[in-house]
Design brief:
Elements (H helix, E strand, L loop, with lengths): L2 E2 L4 H24 L2 H18 L4 E2 L2 H19 L7 H14 L11 H8 L6 H11 L5 H8 L3 H18 L11 H20 L10 H17 L4 H14 L25 H16 L5 H14 L8 H14 L3 H13 L3 H10 L8 H13 L3 H14 L3 H12 L4
Antiparallel strand pairs: 1-2
Helix pairs in contact: 1-2, 1-3, 2-3, 3-4, 6-8, 6-9, 7-8, 9-10, 9-11, 10-11, 11-12, 11-13, 12-13, 13-14, 14-15, 15-16, 16-17, 17-18, 18-19
Length: 414
């Protein structure tokens, strides 16, 4: 194999994992038909890369990892004494390994869409569908997924194991279903894509506040689904929402890496081409006259990016959109966002009352305490605002977010 020298194997491997983990894992799951074996084999390959890439990195890192993962899977099957039961799989893996030895290596098929439809099979519980997709396609750890669901890590680990086992025992195919099965899976697929995007937009674990790779993975998936079902209003709505949100990525952090609030962002840094594409998609979706939650969220996002500045944002219209969203998603999180919109529309007292109405439902949800602190500060309740900021800071998982909130708290009058 051709190699190029590279002194930092760990950095190179991290880059490949960030870019291509979902594609590699989905290719392995298709070949192995075993989620856990695919994850274990890929992890073995990554560990091998740390050793071998220190002596020189392969010209095609993805092909190298896939080939080594196949061999590691073969070793695991044989060590487990399962080679008789899986003789056909072993033969197929050996054949794929031999084909991969050609120069140049064949292109790795992109199986991510098959993976997400497999994870979103109706035989699985809705929560398990989301968790399994975040684990396999998004690359989140079990602990990160547990935190997103406010679950214990052990409980989430058991849920993931049951989901993988059910896929294997039920013989759920690794395939994109035919049109006749779209209705039972489409909403789950869109929800999972949106959660992958959200994890990238506001990472739940320490490290960077924004994970561009996950945001772009989610946008790619939505574009692919849009190509499969052109004209589906909710698919266009989701894609519009993500594009108009991701368009603001360059303005979310300042030069020192500190978080910048939406109202303080330099709008000249927003990706206007992406904004225009997102707004055009929303316009197309609305002509279908099939309203849904993703279109409403996209409309809210469009109001933000189309305003010339914070003072020009149509907050009253936003309150009405949140009212419409509550019909589809009557959740405390939507009520939180509506409360903030009420305050921004000029009724600070109503916003605070709305926050008090959901107090207790979002005790461990950092954005609730951050929003409450801001509204309390604006109403002159400095002592209560400082206490709310303290809770929000304690719940923050990002250093940038903590520093942002600390700065807000420290600016409060004594």
């Amino acid at each position: 194999m051709r190699q190029r020298s590279g002194p930092d194997a760990a950095a190179a491997l991290k880059d490949v994992v960030a870019r291509d983990r979902g594609r590699l894992l989905s290719a392995l799951i298709r070949e192995l038909r075993d989620f856990q074996l695919a994850e274990d084999a890929l992890q073995d390959a990554l560990e091998a890369a740390l050793v071998h890439w220190g002596r020189g990195q392969p010209a095609d890192a993805r092909a190298w990892l896939l080939r080594v993962a196949r061999r590691k899977a073969i070793d695991r099957i044989r060590r487990a004494g399962r080679w008789r039961d899986r003789a056909g799989d072993l033969a197929a893996l050996a054949e794929a390994d031999q084909a991969a030895a050609s120069d140049p290596p064949p292109d790795i098929p992109d199986e991510r869409l098959r993976l997400i439809f497999t994870c979103c099979h109706p035989a699985l519980e809705p929560k398990s569908r989301v968790a399994l997709t975040l684990r396999t396609l998004g690359g989140l750890t079990t602990g990160e997924i547990a935190a997103a669901f406010l679950d214990r890590e052990e409980t989430m680990g058991q849920r993931l194991s049951r989901a993988k086992s059910k896929i294997a025992k039920a013989g759920i195919p690794f395939a994109v279903p035919g049109p006749e099965h779209w209705s039972e899976r489409l909403h789950s697929v869109l929800t999972v894509i949106y959660l992958i995007f959200n994890e990238g937009y506001r990472a739940s674990s320490g490290g960077p506040l924004v994970r561009i790779d996950l945001c772009e993975e989610a946008i790619w998936l939505a574009r692919t689904v849009d190509g499969l079902v052109p004209g589906e209003a909710e698919v266009m709505g989701l894609l519009s929402l993500m594009l108009t949100t991701h368009a603001r990525r360059s303005a979310r952090l300042d030069g020192a890496g500190a978080m910048v609030s939406l109202c303080d962002q330099d709008r000249r840094l927003w990706d206007r081409d992406m904004v225009a594409e997102g707004v055009a998609l929303l316009d197309r979706a609305m002509t279908r006259r099939a309203p849904g939650p993703f279109q409403i969220k996209a409309a809210i996002s469009a109001l933000h990016v189309q305003a010339q500045g914070p003072d020009a944002t149509d907050w009253r219209q936003m309150v009405l959109l949140y009212d419409a969203l509550l019909v589809h998603e009557p959740t405390a999180v939507v009520r939180l966002n509506r409360a903030v919109a009420l305050a921004e529309a000029g009724d600070l007292a109503a916003g605070l009352r709305a926050l008090e109405e959901i107090r207790g439902y979002l005790d461990h949800y950092q954005p609730y305490h951050a929003a409450r602190a801001d509204l309390l500060a604006r109403s002159g309740q400095g002592v209560d605002a400082r206490a709310a900021y303290g809770i929000a800071i304690a719940l923050s998982r990002s250093g940038q977010e903590r520093r942002f909130l600390e700065q807000r708290r420290d600016r409060l009058p004594e």
